[in-house]
Design a protein that fits this description.
elongated, 106 residues, mainly alpha
């Protein structure tokens, strides 16, 4: 029979002093982190008024960042994060293709 000490540990997530913390960081985690960095830099540049929300560079930073995060999510799936990135990518792609559809012939 398990003691209540182990049961409480499992519920609270606490570790005993001798337990090791192992960092499980793979190449796909790095890819996802680069994607997050690209999107944060894009947003920072937007707020600093260095980029416009319709600038191709802003939209590309967001689209590439979203793709990189989606790649990382294929290895450790999280539905909420995937939905966020999928919509982020679709909106960025819409922004990139919008000028193609709105051109008028003179």
């Amino acid at each position: 029979m398990a003691s209540s000490r182990h049961g409480a540990k499992a519920l609270t997530g606490q570790r005993t002093p001798k337990e090791e913390v192992i960092l499980d960081y793979s190449w796909f985690d790095l890819v996802g982190n680069i994607g997050v960095l690209l999107m944060v830099v894009a947003y920072l540049l937007l707020q600093l008024e260095k980029l416009s929300s319709s600038a191709v560079s802003y939209l590309l930073l967001n689209a590439i960042g979203a793709v990189l995060v989606i790649i990382s999510l294929t290895f450790r799936f999280n539905l909420s994060a995937f939905l966020m990135e999928a919509f982020w990518l679709l909106i960025s792609l819409y922004g990139l293709t919008k000028p193609l559809f709105s051109r008028r012939t003179i």
